[in-house]
TrEMBL record, chain B:
<comment type="similarity">
    <text>Belongs to the Ahb/Nir family.</text>
</comment>
<dbReference type="InterPro" id="IPR036388">
    <property type="entry name" value="WH-like_DNA-bd_sf"/>
</dbReference>
<dbReference type="InterPro" id="IPR053953">
    <property type="entry name" value="NirdL-like_HTH"/>
</dbReference>
<protein>
    <recommendedName>
        <fullName>Siroheme decarboxylase NirG subunit</fullName>
        <ecNumber>4.1.1.111</ecNumber>
    </recommendedName>
</protein>
<keyword id="KW-0456">Lyase</keyword>
<feature type="domain" description="Siroheme decarboxylase NirL-like HTH">
    <location>
        <begin position="25"/>
        <end position="70"/>
    </location>
</feature>
<feature type="domain" description="Siroheme decarboxylase AsnC-like ligand binding">
    <location>
        <begin position="87"/>
        <end position="159"/>
    </location>
</feature>
<dbReference type="Pfam" id="PF22451">
    <property type="entry name" value="NirdL-like_HTH"/>
</dbReference>
<dbReference type="InterPro" id="IPR040523">
    <property type="entry name" value="AsnC_trans_reg2"/>
</dbReference>
<dbReference type="GO" id="GO:0016829">
    <property type="term" value="F:lyase activity"/>
</dbReference>
<dbReference type="Pfam" id="PF17805">
    <property type="entry name" value="AsnC_trans_reg2"/>
</dbReference>
<dbReference type="InterPro" id="IPR050684">
    <property type="entry name" value="HTH-Siroheme_Decarb"/>
</dbReference>
<comment type="pathway">
    <text>Porphyrin-containing compound metabolism.</text>
</comment>
<comment type="subunit">
    <text>Probably forms a complex composed of NirD, NirL, NirG and NirH. All proteins are required for the total conversion of siroheme to didecarboxysiroheme.</text>
</comment>
<comment type="function">
    <text>Involved in heme d1 biosynthesis. Catalyzes the decarboxylation of siroheme into didecarboxysiroheme.</text>
</comment>
């Protein structure tokens, strides 16, 4: 247990003194605590046996409140997933293709739905055309270990979904200059970890 | 436990050689891409699922972080729901100016990813900010500093997000 260590870093009121907003006993974190929790989560979960307890101590609240809040965010889909953020190149995924399509607006839902259902497609977004420079309005990411295999996958899905008539382009990345988790909280608050 | 990966150093360049993983590393990376449980001892749960110890799981994760394989251990947020703003942007940068422009663009702390791609629009980056207005400001500043037009293609609709990279 690391209780001694934690109280040293962040002394604070005990959890029972926290105000409980009326009507919301499950989400007992204050707005400010919620904000701080997001900051701590963005910085990365502590790699320790009881990460939620550790964060709770820093926020002067209870482990149960922290877990309830996180679960609630997951249920609301604010957090899609709490886990490992990998650097795909380090895992050998070096062929990262952005496949862009020029889809007729009326076909968008149907075709995007079909592409999204393919296991090799990891992201599928509609984005605006920017004429005259950019004609494509549907973006799919396909990650693979080498380009020829990825191109083969793209050919196959094009055939299988009968999209040969649709204009598309494949943009491989050949260098990543910056790859970091995005931060949604202000930097000044992100740096307030004790 | 003994340090299995002592020879590995943190990777500085994003394009360094892929690290090699033993079966437990692989199982851990694959399982944790699906998410960490929310309970009192989540790493113990993971250890149990992988038939190993909590200590071993934590030690492996620390090593993977140090090697730069993991960028972070935390949440994937839906940025828009949290009040942040995100966009994808691109520029057509002349080859001779590429490195310089890259430095300018990456100098903005709001740039989350930046990839060179094989297209006339050869620089693609994600801008992540607190607000829509801040996105516009960042774009204006990049255009002013580089003299190159920024193509802004924000997400209109999301059909699928499920990045999972098994190894």
């Amino acid at each position: 247990m690391m209780q001694a260590n934690l109280t040293e870093t962040q002394p604070g009121p005990v959890q029972s003194t926290l105000p409980m907003p009326p009507g919301a006993p499950e989400a007992s974190l204050t707005q400010e605590q919620q904000r701080q929790l997001r900051v701590y989560l963005e910085q990365g979960l502590p790699l320790s046996p009881h990460p939620y307890r550790e964060i709770a101590a820093r926020l002067a609240t209870g482990e149960a409140q922290i877990m309830t809040q996180i679960k609630q965010w997951q249920e609301q889909s604010l957090i899609r997933r709490l886990g490992l953020v990998v650097k795909h190149r380090q895992l050998g995924y070096r062929a990262n293709a952005m496949v862009v399509w020029d889809i007729k607006d009326t076909d968008m839902e149907h075709i995007a739905g079909q592409l999204a259902a393919r296991p090799e497609v990891s992201l599928c977004y509609q984005r605006p055309r920017r004429l005259p420079h950019w004609h494509y309005n549907l973006f799919c990411m396909i990650h693979g270990k080498d380009r020829s295999a990825v191109l083969e996958q793209i050919n196959l899905l094009t055939r299988e979904l009968a999209l040969e008539h649709v204009n598309k382009d494949v943009l491989f990345s050949y260098k990543a200059f910056k790859q970091q988790g995005a931060r949604y909280s202000q930097r000044k608050t992100a740096d307030d970890r004790a | 436990m003994t340090e299995l990966k002592e020879k590995s150093r943190p990777h500085n360049g994003p394009d360094t050689q892929a690290v090699t993983f033993d079966p437990l590393d692989k199982a851990l990376i694959n399982l944790l891409q699906r998410g960490l449980p929310v309970n009192e001892a989540p790493f113990a749960s993971i250890a149990e699922a992988l038939n190993t110890t909590e200590q071993e799981v934590l030690s492996r994760l620390n090593t993977l972080l140090a090697q730069g394989v993991l960028s972070r251990f935390g949440p994937m947020y839906d940025a828009a729901c949290l009040g942040g703003a995100f966009t994808l942007a691109a520029m057509a940068v002349p080859a001779a100016e590429f490195d310089h422009v890259c430095e300018v663009v990456n100098g903005f702390e709001q740039i989350a990813h930046n990839y060179q791609r094989n297209h006339r629009l050869n620089m693609w980056f994600v801008i992540a900010t607190e607000s829509e207005t801040e996105i516009a400001t960042v774009i204006e500043q990049i255009e002013a500093k580089t003299g190159i037009e920024v193509l802004n293609v924000p997400k209109l609709e999301e059909f699928y997000v499920g990045l999972y990279l098994p190894i």
